[in-house]
Amino acid sequence: MAPATSLLTDHYELTMVEAALAAGTASRRSVFEVFARRLPEGRRYGLLAGTGRVLEGLADFRFGTAELDFLADRKVVNERTLNWLADFSFKGTITGYAEGEIYFPGSPLLQVESTFAEACILETYLLSVLNFDTAVASAASRMIAVADDRPCIEMGSRRTHEHSAVAAARAAIIAGFGATSNLEAGRSYGLPTTGTAAHSFTLLHDSEREAFQAQVATLGQGTTLLVDTYDVEQGVRTAVEVAGPELGGVRLDSGDLVEQARWVRSLLDELGNTNTRIVVTSDLDEYAIASLRSAPVDAYGVGTQLVTGSGHPTAGMVYKLVSREGNDGQWKDVAKAAIGKASVGGRKSAYRRLNERGRATAEVVGIDETPERTERDRDLIVPLVVDGELQPGFTGADGVKRAIERRKASIEELPGAARQMLRGEPVIPTVFVDEH
Amino acid sequence: MAPATSLLTDHYELTMVEAALAAGTASRRSVFEVFARRLPEGRRYGLLAGTGRVLEGLADFRFGTAELDFLADRKVVNERTLNWLADFSFKGTITGYAEGEIYFPGSPLLQVESTFAEACILETYLLSVLNFDTAVASAASRMIAVADDRPCIEMGSRRTHEHSAVAAARAAIIAGFGATSNLEAGRSYGLPTTGTAAHSFTLLHDSEREAFQAQVATLGQGTTLLVDTYDVEQGVRTAVEVAGPELGGVRLDSGDLVEQARWVRSLLDELGNTNTRIVVTSDLDEYAIASLRSAPVDAYGVGTQLVTGSGHPTAGMVYKLVSREGNDGQWKDVAKAAIGKASVGGRKSAYRRLNERGRATAEVVGIDETPERTERDRDLIVPLVVDGELQPGFTGADGVKRAIERRKASIEELPGAARQMLRGEPVIPTVFVDEH
Questions:
Q1: B293 with B344, same domain?
Q2: Calpha distance A213→B333 (Å, rounded)
Q3: Which of B184, B50, B63, B60 is nearest to B128 (CA)?
Q4: Which of A101, A379, B75, B168 has the smallest CB count inside 10 Å?
């Protein structure tokens, strides 16, 4: 059995359940919504990731003996609440944007309909997964946009928490990265993994030549040799001497990459290694990748800036109660008025308005009713969990494949400005339609 | 049995082992070092966290059937390497700075001495843990410095990966936070957890008054009521009416906190609630906390900026081979020359030079030999694992307690400038002493 995910939450989710049970309001039917009030400054769109992981962990969101004993020992909640938690499994319905979908401010990314108590205790877990994974996917998508079809490799594991690293690899691949260095991501989600050698491998050996010989003997001539441990020019010459004309690639990990890529390309060509690829790594972000567009680079390895969301390590999504039953059994839309943090009450529908060329022109969000739409407009909300039943296709390796397809189709619809690095407003506006 | 940590690593760590096994260099004795080339820009010191978590996961860094099957299926490594991995458990020695210690550029935070292969495969895992935990602890420490002994509560779980959240809570408490909202952190490390209610709890009920009544009925008058769902003044008045003079606290989560705290304090005093505390939350970072110094605030709840390292979500530590045996059995110091990424070869010793008033004046790092020191100077390096044996006291709840003590003593030694928000150079210089 997988470890329970139920304590990956905030203390107050459980004290709220306790108070609501005592007040007789815990069983009120409720709709909670996940959305982002804004995109990170200057970003033109966001890329949703994490939905599959949310659903994977939902099955393990149970309170077993270990969890209940802890809550009892610490007196976090009372006996009645402990009994409620012991019986808990999510029986409600979750709808939302498919993983890999593009989103904008106010897009209703996930809606949870259930009793208040059931939806309440999921808050922290849902937001943790979606905020991290989406931050990485959104940054990754910008890198892909300027990589001009050159392959990008995710290699940031060492720059983030050891488990975040696995999620980051998954999110990067959903966004368009071709491979990851992270082995657990390979195992959990069937992702392609890749890697050759670090500087330490060169330093271990008595000479760079011996290190290259050892690597080629094991990984073959098609491997990529890291040539900047000592002198780059000598490194390239030695690499070619050792591996011959079939050398797969050389990796540059320091210095002025634009200039270096140019003369290394010339040198490789001069030595007859016209098919040897140049892979660059060294602290790349979307701006550095864009600046390498004209340089003879064949692949990018991206680490720190990818797994930390390139300046925006969290997506800023919130989880708000937007509608609930009252004493009288009637639904009532609710919203808080807090300054700068107001929310829009009501159950949402959403579609992407597309013009005759199939390009997106608006994010249309209906409040309580589905606004009129043309045949071209695309419905954005899909059922993920229905009355506690996980819908098929969203989790595991299949979920990743499906998210990749969704991302490709959704990116294709975006106006060209989305693929530019210029800061600006969201590339299409969010239009709220209230039928009341 | 805890899940294996051994695939939380980069593909290339294993291909390097394979190539080194084939070349006969895998068993060369080696020293790897973890250090940071620099602190985040403008920061005056760093606070090391994660060491205990590294050691906890080290015991589970084993390759069982599931891991080996994956590596074999994917042909990541060959049969010989699979056999080596199947037998692997770390038998080497790890020394380093104690968790909770202050550090500076070049401080030798961890040194791993073992065969090359054994040390090599730990790289990604060690760095993931230390880079994340230290980023959070370093940011947290700056917040504590300006909080002037007002309690700080960690509540950022929803803004980072669900497991990072647990590590972030642990790191925050090592840095001086008084409690966390994260329940799993409470369970795993014995940390105090806390929490009351969110806006959704108020919105669930037919009025703010009913919500407050429900909360007070369950959590008692000593609870903290969230008063900004609708109108703050009305919220405060209702809170006092419902809970009476013994109301524990009110929470402000939006708006201009400095101004609001002032008039809410006046209002509470006027209503006779002179002991009711004011807790502020709303996107605080160290600058916002510093700006609230003169406001009548009693506690800070910190989320996003804490768990994302307040602008620096990773500590930038690297893991470098600094010395290794050669063919002749002689140790040889090694370092790469890569532009901007050069490293200092050689096994390190380190102590903090203290003046007659017990204040730190320099970080002294010896290369291959321990430099002369006075009686006052404090040795920074402690044994963590000796010949594969974990040394006691560094892991679990005990490890956290010990790290808190270390942090208190080490912060006390720092010059006063460390506690200011002004950007600047590291508050003491790192001095390398090479006896050769």
A1: no
A2: 22
A3: B50
A4: B75
- Considering the domain architecture, whether residues B334 and B364 belong to the same structural domain is answered as yes
Of the residues A74, A201, A317, A328, the best mutation for testing chain B's interface (the one with the most B CB atoms within 10 Å of its CB) is A201
* Residues A247 and A320 occupy one common structural domain: no
Q: How big, in percent rounded to 5, are the helix, strand and coil portions of chain B?
A: 40, 20, 40
| Of B263, B297, B331, the domain-final residue | B297
Whether residue A43 is found in the same domain as residue A123: yes
3-class secondary structure, A290: helix
Interface A-B, measured as beta-carbon pairs within 8 A, has a size of: 344
Question: CB burial class (10 A; 0-12, 13-18, 19+) of residue B296?
Answer: middle
- For residue A362, give every residue at least 6 positions away whose Cβ sits within 8 Å of its Cβ, in sequence order, or none: A352, A353, A428, A429, A430, A431
The residue from B297, B328, B357 where one domain ends is B297
Q: What CATH number did the domain enclosing A225 receive? A: 3.20.20.70
User: Is A10 in Cβ contact with B157 (below 8 Å)?
Assistant: yes
**Helix A11-23 vs helix A79-87: crossing angle, to nearest 10:** 110
Domain span at residue B223 reads 196-297
Cβ contact B59:B355 at 8 Å: no
B237 touches chain A (CB under 8 A): no
Is residue B302 classed as helix, strand or coil in its secondary structure? Answer: strand
Same domain, B113 and B67: yes
Instruction: Kindly list the distances between the CA atom of residue A286 and the CA atoms of A180, A295, A310, B188, in Å, as whole numbers in the listed order.
Output: 17, 15, 8, 38
Amino acid at A202: T
Examine the domain organization and report whether A316 and A275 are in the same domain.
Answer: no
**B98 and B45 together in one domain:** yes
In a domain, A45, yes or no: yes
pTM recorded for the entire structure: 0.97
Q: Which two tokens stand for residue B406?
A: 């270390």
Q: Nearest CA to B403 among B44, B138, B46, B49? A: B49
pLDDT over 60 (residue B1): no
Tell me phi and psi for residue A377, to 5 degrees. Answer: -60, 140
Does B187 reside within a domain? no
Q: What is the pLDDT of residues A162-188, one digit of tens each?
A: 999 999 999 999 999 999 999 999 999
Closest by CA to B78, choosing from B19, B23, B124, B25, is B19
pLDDT in tens, A69-108: 999 999 999 999 999 999 999 999 999 999 999 999 999 9
On chain A, the residues whose CB falls within 8 A of the CB of B36 are none
Find where tokens 């060509």 sit: A269
ipTM of the complex: 0.97
The number of folded domains in chain A is: 2
**Which of residues B128 and A417 earns the better pLDDT score?**
B128
Would you call A117 helix, strand, or coil by DSSP? helix
Residues of B in contact with A82 (CB under 8 A): none
> Does the residue A295 lie in any domain?
no
CATH code at B102? 3.20.140.10
Instruction: Give CA angle at B111 (B107, B117), nearest 5°.
Output: 140
The packing angle between helices B164-175 and B396-413, to 10°, is 40
Q: Is B75 on the interface with A (CB under 8 A)?
A: no
Identity (one letter) of the amino acid at A403?
A
Do B414 and B329 lie in one domain? The reply is yes
Region of residue A388 (left: phi > 0; alpha: psi -120 to 50; beta: else)? left
